[in-house]
Amino acid sequence: MLRFRAVLTASIAAMVMVASPAVSVAVSADPTTSAEPRTTNDAVQRVLDRAVSEGGAPGILAEVKNGAGRWFGTSGVADTSTNRKPVSYDRYRIGSTTKTFTATVLLQLVGEGRLSLDDSVEKWLPGVVQGNGHDGSKITVRQLLNHTSGIFNYTNDAGVLAKLVGQGFLDHRFDSVLPQDLVRTAMGHAPDFAPGTSWAYSNTNFILAGMIVEKVSGRSLSAEVTRRIIGPLGLGNTYLPGKSTTIVGPHGRAYSKLMTGDPAAPVHDVTEMSATWAGSAGDMISTAGDINRFYSALLGGRLLRPAQQKEMFTAVETVNWIPNTGYGLGMIRQKLSCGVQVWGHGGTIHGSLSWSMGLRDGSKVASTNINGDWVDQGGISTAVMEATFCPGSAAGAGAGDAAGSAAAVPATRPLQLS
Protein backbone atom coordinates (compact mmCIF):
# COMPACT_ATOMS: atom_id res chain seq x y z
CA MET A 1 0.00 0.00 0.00
CA LEU A 2 1.16 3.52 -0.73
CA ARG A 3 2.80 5.31 2.20
CA PHE A 4 3.47 9.00 1.61
CA ARG A 5 5.57 10.01 4.61
CA ALA A 6 5.25 13.30 6.44
CA VAL A 7 8.72 14.89 6.37
CA LEU A 8 8.25 18.16 8.23
CA THR A 9 10.57 18.83 11.16
CA ALA A 10 10.71 21.75 13.53
CA SER A 11 14.00 22.91 12.01
CA ILE A 12 13.53 24.70 8.68
CA ALA A 13 16.23 25.58 6.21
CA ALA A 14 13.95 28.24 4.70
CA MET A 15 14.19 30.79 1.89
CA VAL A 16 13.79 34.53 1.48
CA MET A 17 13.39 37.72 -0.57
CA VAL A 18 14.34 40.80 -2.53
CA ALA A 19 11.47 43.27 -2.46
CA SER A 20 11.39 44.45 -6.06
CA PRO A 21 8.48 46.60 -7.24
CA ALA A 22 5.85 44.49 -8.95
CA VAL A 23 5.28 45.02 -12.66
CA SER A 24 1.73 45.00 -14.01
CA VAL A 25 0.81 41.74 -15.71
CA ALA A 26 -2.31 40.27 -17.21
CA VAL A 27 -4.65 39.04 -14.50
CA SER A 28 -7.26 37.16 -16.53
CA ALA A 29 -7.04 33.43 -17.07
CA ASP A 30 -4.91 32.47 -20.04
CA PRO A 31 -7.42 31.65 -22.81
CA THR A 32 -5.23 28.77 -23.94
CA THR A 33 -5.84 27.07 -20.59
CA SER A 34 -9.43 28.06 -19.92
CA ALA A 35 -10.81 24.83 -21.38
CA GLU A 36 -9.77 21.72 -19.50
CA PRO A 37 -8.02 19.02 -21.58
CA ARG A 38 -9.86 15.74 -22.13
CA THR A 39 -6.90 13.38 -22.57
CA THR A 40 -6.01 10.71 -20.02
CA ASN A 41 -2.88 9.83 -18.09
CA ASP A 42 -3.83 7.00 -15.76
CA ALA A 43 -0.41 6.56 -14.13
CA VAL A 44 -0.15 10.19 -13.01
CA GLN A 45 -3.82 10.32 -12.04
CA ARG A 46 -3.32 7.36 -9.70
CA VAL A 47 -0.54 9.27 -7.94
CA LEU A 48 -2.76 12.32 -7.54
CA ASP A 49 -5.65 10.29 -6.14
CA ARG A 50 -3.45 8.52 -3.62
CA ALA A 51 -1.73 11.75 -2.59
CA VAL A 52 -5.14 12.84 -1.33
CA SER A 53 -6.62 9.54 -0.11
CA GLU A 54 -3.48 8.25 1.59
CA GLY A 55 -1.03 11.15 1.63
CA GLY A 56 -3.33 13.64 3.29
CA ALA A 57 -3.09 16.41 0.68
CA PRO A 58 -6.14 18.74 0.61
CA GLY A 59 -5.73 19.05 -3.15
CA ILE A 60 -3.16 18.40 -5.85
CA LEU A 61 -2.83 19.23 -9.54
CA ALA A 62 -0.40 18.18 -12.23
CA GLU A 63 0.14 19.14 -15.83
CA VAL A 64 2.26 17.30 -18.41
CA LYS A 65 3.41 18.93 -21.64
CA ASN A 66 4.60 16.42 -24.23
CA GLY A 67 5.50 18.20 -27.44
CA ALA A 68 2.32 19.94 -28.55
CA GLY A 69 0.19 17.66 -26.37
CA ARG A 70 -0.98 18.56 -22.91
CA TRP A 71 -2.59 16.64 -20.03
CA PHE A 72 -3.96 18.12 -16.83
CA GLY A 73 -5.27 16.22 -13.81
CA THR A 74 -6.34 16.90 -10.24
CA SER A 75 -7.52 15.26 -7.07
CA GLY A 76 -9.00 16.68 -3.90
CA VAL A 77 -10.10 20.28 -3.60
CA ALA A 78 -8.69 23.74 -4.19
CA ASP A 79 -10.92 25.20 -1.46
CA THR A 80 -12.01 23.12 1.53
CA SER A 81 -14.84 25.51 2.39
CA THR A 82 -16.56 25.22 -1.01
CA ASN A 83 -15.12 21.90 -2.25
CA ARG A 84 -14.19 23.58 -5.54
CA LYS A 85 -11.89 21.38 -7.62
CA PRO A 86 -8.52 22.68 -8.85
CA VAL A 87 -8.45 23.96 -12.43
CA SER A 88 -5.54 24.34 -14.81
CA TYR A 89 -5.47 28.14 -14.60
CA ASP A 90 -5.28 28.21 -10.79
CA ARG A 91 -2.32 30.33 -9.73
CA TYR A 92 -0.12 29.33 -6.80
CA ARG A 93 3.08 30.40 -5.09
CA ILE A 94 5.97 28.54 -6.75
CA GLY A 95 8.61 29.05 -4.04
CA SER A 96 12.16 28.27 -5.09
CA THR A 97 11.23 27.59 -8.69
CA THR A 98 11.75 31.36 -8.76
CA LYS A 99 15.48 30.61 -8.59
CA THR A 100 15.50 29.35 -12.17
CA PHE A 101 13.92 32.61 -13.38
CA THR A 102 16.50 34.66 -11.47
CA ALA A 103 19.37 32.56 -12.81
CA THR A 104 18.05 32.77 -16.38
CA VAL A 105 17.94 36.58 -16.31
CA LEU A 106 21.43 36.75 -14.83
CA LEU A 107 22.77 34.36 -17.47
CA GLN A 108 21.15 36.44 -20.21
CA LEU A 109 23.04 39.46 -18.88
CA VAL A 110 26.23 37.38 -18.95
CA GLY A 111 25.52 36.44 -22.57
CA GLU A 112 25.17 40.13 -23.40
CA GLY A 113 28.63 40.83 -21.96
CA ARG A 114 27.25 42.88 -19.08
CA LEU A 115 29.07 40.79 -16.47
CA SER A 116 30.96 37.51 -16.11
CA LEU A 117 30.21 34.42 -14.05
CA ASP A 118 33.78 34.76 -12.79
CA ASP A 119 33.18 38.27 -11.48
CA SER A 120 33.37 38.56 -7.73
CA VAL A 121 30.32 39.46 -5.69
CA GLU A 122 32.34 42.35 -4.31
CA LYS A 123 32.66 43.86 -7.79
CA TRP A 124 28.90 44.34 -8.10
CA LEU A 125 27.87 44.62 -4.45
CA PRO A 126 30.83 46.29 -2.72
CA GLY A 127 30.87 45.84 1.03
CA VAL A 128 27.71 43.75 1.12
CA VAL A 129 29.25 40.29 1.72
CA GLN A 130 31.61 40.96 4.59
CA GLY A 131 31.93 39.90 8.21
CA ASN A 132 32.36 36.78 10.34
CA GLY A 133 34.60 35.23 7.70
CA HIS A 134 32.50 36.13 4.64
CA ASP A 135 34.48 37.84 1.90
CA GLY A 136 32.67 38.86 -1.28
CA SER A 137 35.96 39.37 -3.11
CA LYS A 138 36.57 35.61 -2.97
CA ILE A 139 33.09 34.52 -4.09
CA THR A 140 32.06 34.45 -7.74
CA VAL A 141 28.67 34.95 -9.36
CA ARG A 142 28.83 31.32 -10.53
CA GLN A 143 29.25 30.15 -6.93
CA LEU A 144 26.10 32.00 -5.95
CA LEU A 145 24.08 30.29 -8.66
CA ASN A 146 25.28 26.74 -7.93
CA HIS A 147 25.33 27.06 -4.13
CA THR A 148 29.08 26.58 -3.71
CA SER A 149 29.68 30.02 -2.18
CA GLY A 150 29.58 28.83 1.43
CA ILE A 151 27.48 31.87 2.36
CA PHE A 152 25.27 31.23 5.39
CA ASN A 153 21.59 30.62 4.61
CA TYR A 154 19.79 33.44 6.42
CA THR A 155 16.69 31.31 6.81
CA ASN A 156 18.67 29.14 9.21
CA ASP A 157 18.94 32.15 11.51
CA ALA A 158 17.00 31.60 14.74
CA GLY A 159 15.32 35.01 14.54
CA VAL A 160 14.15 34.43 10.97
CA LEU A 161 12.92 30.94 11.79
CA ALA A 162 10.92 32.31 14.70
CA LYS A 163 8.93 34.36 12.19
CA LEU A 164 8.39 31.46 9.80
CA VAL A 165 7.24 28.71 12.15
CA GLY A 166 4.14 28.38 14.31
CA GLN A 167 2.52 31.40 15.91
CA GLY A 168 5.48 33.52 14.84
CA PHE A 169 4.41 33.15 11.23
CA LEU A 170 0.85 34.22 11.99
CA ASP A 171 2.18 37.25 13.87
CA HIS A 172 4.51 38.29 11.03
CA ARG A 173 2.86 36.94 7.88
CA PHE A 174 2.24 40.42 6.44
CA ASP A 175 5.64 41.90 7.32
CA SER A 176 7.63 43.40 4.44
CA VAL A 177 11.34 42.63 4.38
CA LEU A 178 14.19 44.16 2.38
CA PRO A 179 16.86 41.99 0.71
CA GLN A 180 19.66 44.01 2.27
CA ASP A 181 18.34 43.14 5.72
CA LEU A 182 18.27 39.44 4.87
CA VAL A 183 21.87 39.54 3.69
CA ARG A 184 22.89 41.40 6.86
CA THR A 185 21.29 38.60 8.88
CA ALA A 186 23.38 36.05 6.97
CA MET A 187 26.53 38.08 7.57
CA GLY A 188 25.94 37.76 11.32
CA HIS A 189 26.97 34.10 11.03
CA ALA A 190 30.14 32.35 9.92
CA PRO A 191 30.23 30.81 6.41
CA ASP A 192 29.40 27.14 6.03
CA PHE A 193 32.71 26.53 4.21
CA ALA A 194 35.35 28.30 2.13
CA PRO A 195 34.07 29.31 -1.34
CA GLY A 196 34.20 26.49 -3.88
CA THR A 197 35.15 23.76 -1.40
CA SER A 198 31.72 22.16 -0.85
CA TRP A 199 28.00 22.58 -1.54
CA ALA A 200 25.11 23.84 0.61
CA TYR A 201 21.71 25.18 -0.38
CA SER A 202 21.50 28.82 0.68
CA ASN A 203 18.70 31.21 -0.12
CA THR A 204 21.10 34.06 0.55
CA ASN A 205 22.87 33.18 -2.70
CA PHE A 206 19.78 34.02 -4.74
CA ILE A 207 18.91 37.13 -2.78
CA LEU A 208 22.38 38.33 -3.80
CA ALA A 209 21.84 37.15 -7.38
CA GLY A 210 18.67 39.22 -7.59
CA MET A 211 20.51 42.24 -6.21
CA ILE A 212 23.20 41.80 -8.88
CA VAL A 213 20.57 41.65 -11.64
CA GLU A 214 19.23 44.97 -10.45
CA LYS A 215 22.69 46.52 -10.16
CA VAL A 216 23.80 45.39 -13.63
CA SER A 217 20.55 46.12 -15.46
CA GLY A 218 19.52 49.27 -13.66
CA ARG A 219 15.98 47.85 -13.41
CA SER A 220 14.05 45.89 -10.81
CA LEU A 221 14.22 42.11 -10.96
CA SER A 222 10.47 42.11 -11.57
CA ALA A 223 10.88 44.35 -14.61
CA GLU A 224 13.70 42.22 -16.01
CA VAL A 225 11.88 38.90 -15.52
CA THR A 226 8.77 40.37 -17.14
CA ARG A 227 10.67 41.92 -20.07
CA ARG A 228 12.93 38.97 -20.76
CA ILE A 229 10.82 35.89 -19.90
CA ILE A 230 7.18 36.51 -19.02
CA GLY A 231 6.42 38.77 -21.98
CA PRO A 232 8.27 36.88 -24.74
CA LEU A 233 6.85 33.51 -23.65
CA GLY A 234 3.33 34.81 -23.07
CA LEU A 235 3.21 33.68 -19.45
CA GLY A 236 0.01 35.57 -18.68
CA ASN A 237 -0.47 33.94 -15.28
CA THR A 238 3.04 34.54 -13.95
CA TYR A 239 4.29 37.50 -11.95
CA LEU A 240 6.43 38.70 -9.06
CA PRO A 241 4.11 39.99 -6.33
CA GLY A 242 6.52 42.43 -4.67
CA LYS A 243 4.86 43.74 -1.50
CA SER A 244 1.39 42.53 -2.47
CA THR A 245 0.00 39.98 0.00
CA THR A 246 -2.69 38.54 -2.28
CA ILE A 247 -2.69 36.22 -5.27
CA VAL A 248 -4.14 38.17 -8.19
CA GLY A 249 -6.39 36.25 -10.55
CA PRO A 250 -7.89 32.73 -10.31
CA HIS A 251 -6.49 30.66 -7.45
CA GLY A 252 -7.35 28.09 -4.84
CA ARG A 253 -6.57 28.36 -1.15
CA ALA A 254 -3.24 27.55 0.51
CA TYR A 255 -3.28 25.51 3.73
CA SER A 256 -0.54 25.24 6.33
CA LYS A 257 0.29 23.62 9.66
CA LEU A 258 2.84 26.43 10.03
CA MET A 259 5.87 24.19 9.51
CA THR A 260 5.75 22.92 13.09
CA GLY A 261 6.24 19.25 12.24
CA ASP A 262 3.32 18.37 14.50
CA PRO A 263 0.88 16.03 12.68
CA ALA A 264 -1.89 17.12 15.05
CA ALA A 265 -1.33 20.84 14.48
CA PRO A 266 -4.37 22.82 13.32
CA VAL A 267 -4.61 23.81 9.66
CA HIS A 268 -4.56 27.52 8.75
CA ASP A 269 -5.51 29.25 5.51
CA VAL A 270 -2.37 31.19 4.56
CA THR A 271 -3.32 32.20 1.02
CA GLU A 272 -2.75 35.86 1.88
CA MET A 273 0.78 36.57 3.09
CA SER A 274 3.81 38.68 2.32
CA ALA A 275 6.42 36.73 0.38
CA THR A 276 9.01 39.49 0.53
CA TRP A 277 11.02 37.07 2.64
CA ALA A 278 11.17 34.94 -0.51
CA GLY A 279 11.80 37.44 -3.38
CA SER A 280 14.49 36.53 -5.87
CA ALA A 281 14.90 33.22 -4.06
CA GLY A 282 11.22 32.26 -4.19
CA ASP A 283 8.34 34.74 -4.21
CA MET A 284 6.85 34.21 -7.68
CA ILE A 285 3.29 33.21 -8.53
CA SER A 286 2.39 31.13 -11.60
CA THR A 287 0.43 28.16 -12.95
CA ALA A 288 1.51 24.66 -13.90
CA GLY A 289 0.95 25.46 -17.57
CA ASP A 290 3.07 28.61 -17.49
CA ILE A 291 5.87 26.85 -15.63
CA ASN A 292 5.84 24.03 -18.17
CA ARG A 293 6.04 26.54 -21.00
CA PHE A 294 8.97 28.26 -19.29
CA TYR A 295 10.96 25.07 -18.71
CA SER A 296 10.20 23.77 -22.19
CA ALA A 297 11.67 26.94 -23.68
CA LEU A 298 14.64 27.02 -21.31
CA LEU A 299 15.53 23.35 -21.68
CA GLY A 300 15.04 23.62 -25.43
CA GLY A 301 17.66 26.37 -25.69
CA ARG A 302 15.32 29.21 -26.57
CA LEU A 303 16.20 31.55 -23.68
CA LEU A 304 19.99 31.36 -23.35
CA ARG A 305 22.94 31.50 -25.72
CA PRO A 306 24.88 28.22 -26.11
CA ALA A 307 27.73 29.17 -23.77
CA GLN A 308 25.37 30.16 -20.97
CA GLN A 309 23.15 27.15 -21.63
CA LYS A 310 26.17 24.93 -21.10
CA GLU A 311 27.00 26.73 -17.85
CA MET A 312 23.45 26.39 -16.51
CA PHE A 313 23.47 22.63 -17.06
CA THR A 314 26.94 22.02 -15.61
CA ALA A 315 25.91 20.50 -12.29
CA VAL A 316 27.82 19.86 -9.09
CA GLU A 317 26.79 17.06 -6.77
CA THR A 318 24.60 18.07 -3.86
CA VAL A 319 25.66 17.35 -0.28
CA ASN A 320 23.24 16.19 2.48
CA TRP A 321 20.27 17.20 0.35
CA ILE A 322 17.85 15.41 -1.97
CA PRO A 323 19.36 12.04 -3.00
CA ASN A 324 20.32 11.51 -6.65
CA THR A 325 20.42 15.20 -7.47
CA GLY A 326 22.97 17.64 -8.79
CA TYR A 327 22.72 21.41 -8.96
CA GLY A 328 23.56 23.54 -11.97
CA LEU A 329 22.98 27.30 -12.09
CA GLY A 330 19.52 27.67 -10.59
CA MET A 331 18.63 24.23 -11.93
CA ILE A 332 18.24 20.85 -10.20
CA ARG A 333 19.24 17.63 -11.98
CA GLN A 334 17.25 14.64 -10.69
CA LYS A 335 17.93 11.02 -11.60
CA LEU A 336 14.82 8.88 -11.51
CA SER A 337 14.75 5.19 -10.65
CA CYS A 338 14.54 4.17 -14.33
CA GLY A 339 17.80 6.04 -15.06
CA VAL A 340 16.19 9.00 -16.81
CA GLN A 341 17.63 12.38 -15.80
CA VAL A 342 15.27 15.34 -15.60
CA TRP A 343 15.95 19.01 -14.92
CA GLY A 344 13.97 21.74 -13.20
CA HIS A 345 13.30 22.98 -9.68
CA GLY A 346 10.93 22.67 -6.77
CA GLY A 347 9.47 25.09 -4.30
CA THR A 348 8.23 24.94 -0.72
CA ILE A 349 6.47 27.92 0.80
CA HIS A 350 3.69 28.13 3.38
CA GLY A 351 0.63 26.40 1.94
CA SER A 352 2.22 25.41 -1.37
CA LEU A 353 4.48 22.53 -2.39
CA SER A 354 5.51 22.41 -6.05
CA TRP A 355 7.89 20.51 -8.30
CA SER A 356 8.65 20.91 -12.03
CA MET A 357 10.93 18.76 -14.16
CA GLY A 358 11.64 18.16 -17.85
CA LEU A 359 13.78 16.19 -20.24
CA ARG A 360 17.05 17.86 -21.17
CA ASP A 361 15.78 18.84 -24.63
CA GLY A 362 12.54 20.28 -23.29
CA SER A 363 10.38 17.88 -25.31
CA LYS A 364 8.49 16.73 -22.23
CA VAL A 365 7.94 18.62 -18.97
CA ALA A 366 5.72 18.15 -15.94
CA SER A 367 4.66 20.31 -13.01
CA THR A 368 2.73 19.50 -9.86
CA ASN A 369 1.43 21.51 -6.92
CA ILE A 370 -0.04 20.56 -3.55
CA ASN A 371 -2.01 23.12 -1.53
CA GLY A 372 -1.07 21.71 1.90
CA ASP A 373 2.46 21.99 3.27
CA TRP A 374 2.50 19.10 5.77
CA VAL A 375 2.54 16.15 3.35
CA ASP A 376 5.47 14.21 1.91
CA GLN A 377 6.48 16.58 -0.87
CA GLY A 378 9.49 14.50 -1.91
CA GLY A 379 7.60 11.24 -2.19
CA ILE A 380 4.55 12.63 -3.96
CA SER A 381 6.48 14.83 -6.38
CA THR A 382 8.89 12.05 -7.23
CA ALA A 383 5.97 9.69 -7.80
CA VAL A 384 4.48 12.17 -10.29
CA MET A 385 7.79 12.38 -12.14
CA GLU A 386 8.27 8.60 -12.14
CA ALA A 387 4.79 8.16 -13.62
CA THR A 388 5.51 10.84 -16.23
CA PHE A 389 9.03 10.01 -17.35
CA CYS A 390 9.32 6.28 -16.51
CA PRO A 391 5.90 4.96 -17.64
CA GLY A 392 7.26 1.66 -18.94
CA SER A 393 9.35 0.84 -15.87
CA ALA A 394 8.27 -0.93 -12.72
CA ALA A 395 8.56 2.35 -10.82
CA GLY A 396 6.52 4.22 -13.39
CA ALA A 397 3.84 1.56 -13.58
CA GLY A 398 3.49 1.58 -9.78
CA ALA A 399 4.42 5.19 -9.28
CA GLY A 400 2.03 5.54 -6.40
CA ASP A 401 4.61 3.68 -4.33
CA ALA A 402 7.49 5.92 -5.39
CA ALA A 403 7.48 7.71 -2.05
CA GLY A 404 10.15 5.23 -1.09
CA SER A 405 12.17 5.70 -4.27
CA ALA A 406 15.76 6.88 -4.34
CA ALA A 407 14.73 10.46 -4.98
CA ALA A 408 12.26 10.77 -2.13
CA VAL A 409 13.17 13.19 0.63
CA PRO A 410 14.39 11.41 3.77
CA ALA A 411 12.31 12.00 6.87
CA THR A 412 15.39 13.35 8.66
CA ARG A 413 15.99 16.20 6.18
CA PRO A 414 14.77 19.61 7.37
CA LEU A 415 12.08 21.13 5.23
CA GLN A 416 13.41 23.92 3.03
CA LEU A 417 11.05 26.77 2.38
CA SER A 418 11.20 27.72 -1.27
From TrEMBL:
Gene3D superfamilies according to UniProt: DD-peptidase/beta-lactamase superfamily
Keyword Signal belongs to the record: yes
Keywords: Signal
Signal peptide: 1-25
Transmembrane domains' residue ranges: none
Domain of life: Bacteria
Beta-lactamase-related domain sequence ranges: 45-352
SUPFAM superfamilies: beta-lactamase/transpeptidase-like
Designated name of the protein: Beta-lactamase family protein
Organism: Streptomyces mesophilus
